[in-house]
Amino acid sequence: MAHYPDIQLHIDGAWRTTQDSLPILNPASAQEIGLLPVASRADLDDALAAAARGFRIWSQTAPAKRAEIMLRAARLMRDRNEEIAQAITLEHGKPLTEARMEVIRGCEFFEWDAGEAVRTYGRVIPSAPGIKYIVLHRPIGMVAAFSPWNFPMSQPSRKVAGALAAGCSIILKAAEETPAGAVHIARAFHDAGLPAGVLNLVFGVPADISSHLIPQSQTRLVAFTGSTAVGKQLTELAARHMKPVLMELGGHAPVVVCDDVDPVQAAITSATRKMRNAGQVCTSPTRFYVHESIYKPFAQAFAETAAALHVGDGFDPSTQMGPLANRRRPDALEALSEDARAKGARMLTGGHRMTGDGYFFAPTVIAEAPDDARAMREEPFGPFAIINPVASLDEAIEKANALPFGLAAYGFTHSARNADRLAEELEAGNVSINTLEASVAETPFGGVKDSGYGREGGAEGLSHYTIVKTISHLVG
Ligand code: NAD
């Protein structure tokens, strides 16, 4: 039996339990695996006071020292990869191999931002004799961060890495359904020697926590990853209190498949990638616009690949796709499937729950979905792909850009002209050609339109966690 950690809050460098708790379920069996502590108002106030003290210490800590502690914590997480991965598979359901990769990816975020910590250069502005103008990038202050359940370890890593590298303290409210990844992060930083109060971890009722933390005077940035609907609510609240936000929200990524590629190869690559993390990825390729000349073999190979995937418990080594992470997802996907069928889409495979106690849903591929099908507009956030034929690149680009989302977009082509058009014209923060990878630690990641704003990672990532401070110094 895999080990699941004792889930506690981490406030002011100490672990604490709470009076109230909620069950944590294994989505492969719907069985309880642990208890989630629910933070009270007093716990949150303690976290705020601790984070204010933590900010005073950490913002005055040399960047090289900050980087050293971050790298030590990342090393500990790499050493604990198996333990963390097992906890993630237990609480989230994803195959153990994917959980192991997620831990490495989370460590890469820390390692990249640790490198950036020592490179937050300011500049000296040329000036008249006797006066100096200096631009500094200073840590913004305490960050209130909210991370979702789809990547229990790498999602919180993004926010903790950015905050700590910049010299900020943070209160992280990680996902209630998948708390273990964040607990392991807090544990690794505790063991790596992070001063008390710099990283505080809470769980509870999400709206109660955000509505209490965001208005506080010491909260200087609101960083959220999750749905567009909640992102807009938190942005409104933040605006009322004049707090900047970093919002990484939903997507509904289009994939344009041009007529110059091998349709079978592109379909196999696409179907495999689509079902990674059971499709619960904000950059998941979802709307495939395939040139009509290669549409049939593409759709067939895609559906066959999806249907052949072995769906099961993430601990079974033969499993290629696990259950969905919570009870809401199969309900949502069932509704989208029924609606698509009713509106005349062709169901190539799936579209139904699978037997068993867990939240299993069959890999689903629909074709020729009309624009008024709900799945064409609502992010399925699950193992659900839509394949539609198009007559031209113009039509594909127009349809790809038709939704209010703009996080990731993809294209398959060997034509330099097509590739250039896709790169220029697809409305998304991240456009990938001939690869379905949209984000790595060294590249900036984030959305346009309803997919949010701000960037995480890359050389841009720390800019949200810092403020620009101009010093004018009249010398003598
Ligand atoms: P949801 O919008 O209720 O919750 C998403 C996340 O936001 C959860 O982690 C939740 O704890 C948090 N949250 C919700 N209300 C909050 C509040 N008032 N204050 C602070 N945090 C709050 O939706 P859900 O049912 O958990 O997930 C469904 C949708 O969320 C998906 O369809 C997908 O669009 C989106 N989602 C996106 C990502 C992403 O990586 N962008 C990740 C997870 C979910």
What can you tell me about this protein's structure?
The protein is of the alpha/beta class and 476 residues long. The protein has 2 domains: 9-249 and 450-472, Aldehyde Dehydrogenase, Chain A, domain 1 (3-Layer(aba) Sandwich); 253-440, Aldehyde Dehydrogenase, Chain A, domain 2 (3-Layer(aba) Sandwich). It contains 13 helices and 20 strands. It has helices at residues 41-58, 63-79, 81-92, 96-117, 154-166, 180-192, 206-213, 228-240, 263-274, 295-308, 328-342, 393-400, 416-425, and strands at residues 9-11, 14-16, 21-26, 31-37, 123-125, 131-139, 142-146, 170-173, 199-202, 219-225, 245-248, 253-257, 285-291, 346-349, 364-367, 384-390, 408-412, 430-433, 452-453, 466-474. The chain has a 7-stranded mixed beta sheet with strand order 14-15-16-13-12-17-18, sandwiched between helices. Strands 9-8-7-10-11-19 form a 6-stranded mixed beta sheet, sandwiched between helices. The protein starts with 8 loop residues before the first strand and ends with a strand. The structure holds nicotinamide-adenine-dinucleotide. Residues 146, 148-150, 175-176, 206-207, 210, 225-227, 229-230, 233-234, 248-250, 282, 328, 379, 381 line the site of nicotinamide-adenine-dinucleotide (NAD).
